[in-house]
Amino acid sequence: MNVMGIIFANDASIGELTNKRTMASLPFGGRYRQVDFALSNLSCAGVRHVGIISRHNYQSLMNHIGDGEEWGLELEEGGLEFLTPYAQSATDTYRGKLESLRHAMDFLEYGADDELVVMIDSAVLSNVDLIDILNKHVESGKDVTVVTKSGIANGKKKLDLALKLDENGEVTDMVVDYVAPSDYVASMDIFVLDKKWLIQQTKEMIARDKFHMDRDLVMGGWQRGKVSVNIYEFDGVAMFNESVEEYFYNSLSLIRKDIRHDVFHGNHPVYTKVRDRVPTYYGESCDVENCLAADGCMLEGKVGNSVLFRQVTVGKDAEVQNCVIMNDSVVGEGAELKYVILDKNVTVTPGAKLIGTKQSPVIVKRGETV
Q1: 313-314 and 298-299: which strand pairing?
Q2: Phi/psi at 247 (nearest 5 deg)?
Q3: pLDDT tens for each residue of 169-224
Q4: Strand-pair category, 362-364 with 185-194
Q5: Which residues pair with 362 in a beta bridge?
Q6: Looking at residue 17, what DSSP letter applies?
Q7: Interacting residues of 286 by C-beta distance below 8 A, sequence separation 6+
Q8: Cβ neighbours, 10 Å, residue 345
């Protein structure tokens, strides 16, 4: 079957980390960006016609993806395309994914051979077997397949779309933007749909002043008996990075070997932009324990339970505990960091002290000196 992929860069904000970048270009896991997971899922399923939809702040995303070579994609018409539907819009108002699809209709209608569309968001990270999902969608004969994860709904977290299932896996209830109880499953924002059907439904929804994928098309159509919904329950690790607390928790969970293996090697490898660096240097007096460190680092202090991106420097007698430190940041001699997120190119001066908590880590913006 011929399949088209659409990745939503997700311009939602999680504070300082996404002030000048999309969720898709947010660094994660030492050397990756969040978009790498969606691109790798599609590429490893043989999907070569991929569009990336973003509203703004997409320059770093384009710089990261480049010509798409690392994912086996070609940046050209009919291959990988950046879709910026609001670049020439008279208004910056965004009302939902269906409106974005309307602005990207030329891309949707291009390529008559494409039969199915896979839509993936960039805020939920997973290593899924899209081939199996596509096959199960076709077998179901239903209009929409929603990939879901149990254990996310907990009566505390607001979910974009949550569904209640019976013992046969059939949908009995849906809610959107709701703090669903634990007997609901959470949508992972991965949808599979027939392309012609999606085009038709998008045009009809927009004509009726309806713009939301979850609320208007999926839940609204299901409630009216107009849209049949198939559920694919994913049993691997799904990381919902929809808040600073979740991003911080999920980043540090990669220190666990089982989590790291599932996320990066579960169904297939996760590819990213290649940047060769020298191996990490461990100084004679350093004390590094239970860390995930990328290449090019210079470590001479004490580091524990932390994720270090490429070319991070930790000076002598510095102490870094439970931190996420992004590319090219420098922790000066004698500094103390606990529960901290340093964005790229941050300099922590010698002797400085930054102390956060697990629920509220200290965030230092890109390029700052503290």
Answers
A1: parallel
A2: -60, -45
A3: 999 999 999 999 999 999 999 999 999 999 999 999 999 999 999 999 999 999 99
A4: unpaired
A5: 340
A6: G
A7: 299, 300, 301, 302, 303, 314
A8: 16
Q: Cα(135)–Cα(150) distance, rounded to whole angstroms?
A: 21
End-to-end CA gap in the chain: 54
Angle at 156 between CA 151 and CA 158, to 5 degrees: 85
Helix (H) or strand (E) holding 5: strand 3-8
Report the share of the chain in percent with pLDDT over 70.
Answer: 96
Phi and psi dihedrals of 341, rounded to 5?
-115, 115
CB 160 within 8 A of CB 176: yes
User: What's the distance, CA 166 to chain centroid?
Assistant: 29
Q: How far apart are CA 286 and CA 96, in angstroms?
A: 50
Give the DSSP letter string of 298-354.
EE-SEEES-EE-TT-EE-TT-EEES-EE-TT-EE-TT-EEESEEE-TT-EEPTT-EE
Q: Could you count the other beta carbons within 10 Å of the beta carbon of residue 89?
A: 12
How far, CA to CA in Å, does 177 sit from each of 173, 226, 236? Answer: 14, 22, 24
Continuous segment of H or E residues that includes residue 178:
strand 171-179
Tokens for 345, please give them: 């190119």
Backbone angles phi, psi at 314, to 5 degrees: -120, 115
Give the CA distances from residue 137 to residues 1, 134, 140, 351, in Å, rounded to whole numbers and listed in that order. Answer: 12, 5, 5, 57
Which three-class secondary structure state does DSSP give residue 220?
A: helix
Is there a contact between 283 and 44 (Cβ–Cβ < 8 Å)? no
Query: Residue 246 CB: number of other CB atoms within 10 A?
Result: 15
The Cα–Cα gap between 12 and 243 comes to 10
* Entry pTM: 0.93
Contact criterion met (CB below 8 Å) for 172 and 166? yes
What are the tens digits of pLDDT across the range 58-93?
888 888 988 888 898 876 656 788 887 665 444 455
